[in-house]
Amino acid sequence: MNKKNLEDFGLNIGKWTMKTPYKKARLFSPQTRAAIDLIRPFTLAAPLIVSMSIMVASLVFYAEQGKIQIPPNWYFIVAQAGLTIAIVNAASNSLNQAADVESDKISKPYRPIPQRLISRDSAQSIAYIFYLFALLRAVTINFWFGLFIFLIMVFTVTYSLPPRMKKYLFINQIWIAIPRGMLGILASWSVFGHEHLFETPTPWIIGGVATAFLIGGMATKDITDAKADKATGVRTMINTFGTKITAYVSLPLMIFPFIFIIILINLDLLAGYLWPLSFFSVLSFLIFYLMVKEKESKTLENVHAWSIMYVTYIFFALVFSVLTIFNDILPGFLYL
Asked: Is 88 within 8 Å of 136 (Cβ atoms)?
């Protein structure tokens, strides 16, 4: 794409990233782009990709055991359920921005509410509409999926609104990791495996690994908000102990869950072909290094460590799903 094409593209879009100033464009008005930014599209990639890959893995997992038959419209079910989980996250993002206006004025003034393109009340209303739509859609899939979506909603709402678990040290990281890790994976697994949810420890263990990793990794999101959080009464590990101490505390939480996969395989709690998942512990060292560096992205909303943390979570789910789906054709050396 040459320079002129890039300029034309810029005139059509008007805004490339969250940090780019809002301006009038041929395709999107500032208000339209602000509405898009309200749901933070980049952060929706993780729940969408993770959920859909876990759904397909669970479908193959039980189909190979002869416990369920693959429905002819399985891809449509996956798409609808994945979209439901993404909408819940969009609602959470919108509600979080509505609740964090004072903080965002300090650390993220480029967001749509501080820019006065969307009001706090409008953002909160959008969040409630998304939550309601997601819940109504979820209960039509099956009871367990609806229940897990409801629990995700409870965690995300109480994170931002009273009792506002976001403001409590240590609890805030756990509170945000549970819906994104354990509940998100169990919800995805339950789309096809709801009748056999308690017959295998696999989804519970994978959800537990993801949760422990996210408890440590989610500290990365607080680096750029340290001063704003402190000014608004929110206590995080970053603004309480500093980035370096937080990084050293977070490192074991990011490493050991992946290493424990080997132990769980030897205890016959996980299938032997899942041992390559332990290699994700290496990426935890990279996240640790980037946390200490505190280098902020010029395009995304946070530091590079935060971006790598999200990417690691996505690929963890993808590799788990690929290994589960194609376990019968994997070479012998991939089994313990």
From this structure: no
Residue 303 bridge partners (DSSP): 296
Residues 145 and 18 in one domain: no
| CB atoms near residue 193 (< 10 Å) | 26
Residue matched to tokens 């977070």: 250
The answer to whether the Cα torsion of 294, 86, 190, 316 is positive or negative is negative
Same domain, 77 and 1: no
DSSP one-letter code for 182: I
Predicted confidence pLDDT, tens digits, the chain (336 residues): 444 454 444 445 555 566 677 776 666 778 888 888 999 988 898 899 999 999 999 999 999 999 999 999 999 999 999 999 999 999 999 999 999 999 999 999 999 999 999 999 999 999 999 999 999 999 999 999 999 999 999 999 999 999 999 999 999 999 999 999 999 999 999 999 999 999 999 999 999 999 999 999 999 999 999 999 999 999 999 999 999 999 999 999 999 999 999 999 999 999 999 999 999 999 999 999 999 988 777 767 788 999 999 999 999 999 999 999 998 876 655 665
Assign residue 119 the CATH number of its domain.
Answer: 1.10.600
Count of domains forming the chain: 2
Alpha-carbon dihedral sign for residues 187, 188, 193, 196: negative
- Domain shared by 95 and 54, yes or no: yes
On whether both 263 and 191 belong to a single domain, the answer is: yes
Same domain, 59 and 22: no
